[in-house]
Fold these 2 entries.
Entry 1:
Amino acid sequence: MHNGVSVTQFIIEEQRRLPNATGDFTSLLNDVVSACKVISNLVNKGSLIGVLGTADTENVQGETQKKLDIITNEVFIKSNEWAGHLAAMASEEEDDIYPIPAQYPKGKYLMSFDPLDGSSNIDVNISVGTIFSITKCPEGVENPTKEDFLIPGTEQVCAGYALYGPSTMLVLTTGNGVNGFTLDRDIGEFILTHPNMTIPADTREFSINSSNQRFWEAPVQRYVEECLAGKEGPRGDNFNMRWVASMVAEVHRILTRGGIFMYPKDTKDPSKAGKLRLMYEANPMSMIVEQAGGVSHTGYERIMEIKPNDIHQRVPVILGSKNEVEVVVGYHKD
Ligand code: AHM
Ligand code: MG
């Protein structure tokens, strides 16, 4: 027997506080949790079960898919399509939305997800993750279309990620703070280990892929230059830098010890406003960061207020410790 609170118990106790809850949402989250356990197991076994390496196919974004991108997408869909809680799903790995197949009942929620974020790291055994965002299907809509997904992040009812690192962790928000759970493999349960996660308002640690420096806009150039100038520069302090190239690991570090993460607007490819996708990367991470007391912005606007125009829309992302993100946003205003 474990003594901790399992994620199942935690979700049910949260549900009891809502007078009109039917258990539908609790049950949906349980399916998401099950999918993350399966993915954790696959990522953990890696080469032993032949799942590493490239699949030599391209997704809708023109990125070469890894075998595990395809397998984990399948796992997430199969775990969540049958129970009658969802009306449709949208995935980084699917060109169009995924309607619930006719043989299953349809539910009142929509879910967008990235089944394996940071998958460029998978073959080198560095942390990767799964990100998901849940919204309500518009009232009266039986067969949702792409347009039904295109609502701002402020409408999310739940956001979360699983981090497959030295430990597998699940971090969740339903709009009532952020809680972190660690997978105990011996009993197959996520146990509450990080209640009420909060991001310190100040930080001296930044995170950006500086190989893109020549493409950045002036405000980001200025900010990073000032960080690098250290104690003798205008910020009067030394900064540290980290770049994992797995957004989930990056956000998790910020939730644990503070920091600022940026994948800003750049001129590398004028057809793309940034690298990260709004619906299943930026929005869910923004909800988590804001619920933990941080800020999430493009430099020009609050990410969760963007009215999406496509399920695979890309946006600039600047998120993390409040005071530091506000410095960068201030430079954009200048
Ligand atoms: P992915 O969904 O194809 O894995 O791409 C998203 C990832 C993020 O996790 C990470 O922050 C970023 O891409 C890394 O980009 P780069 O390869 O430029 O370092
Ligand atoms: Mg991704």
Entry 2:
Amino acid sequence: MATRKQDDLVLEAKKSAVKPPPLFKVMILNDDYTPMDFVVVVLQKFFSMNREQATRVMLKVHREGVGVCGVFPRDVAATKVEHVCAYARSHQHPLACVMEEN
Ligand code: TYC
């Protein structure tokens, strides 16, 4: 905000009334049927990971049950979830992909 005090322009910091938009984690879940190679391809195709990053995330999910693929604004996260689920279904794999507020 700008105010004038005795001809000097004073710039004052003003707290913003608007909150930054929420971010959402996109996660994949482990299952017993989706092939490991397919999960690696999904992570490379939809989350721009290289083969090494994708393999690390896939193995973490395989061992721990869930893993984060990325963090995005709501609409981007929702689109990723839809695309991953549609791609998995089109290959008859049960891979689950979900989003959760960060
Ligand atoms: N557990 C699967 C297997 O042994 C591999 C897998 C990893 C599946 C990650 C899903 O999100 C997943 N073939």
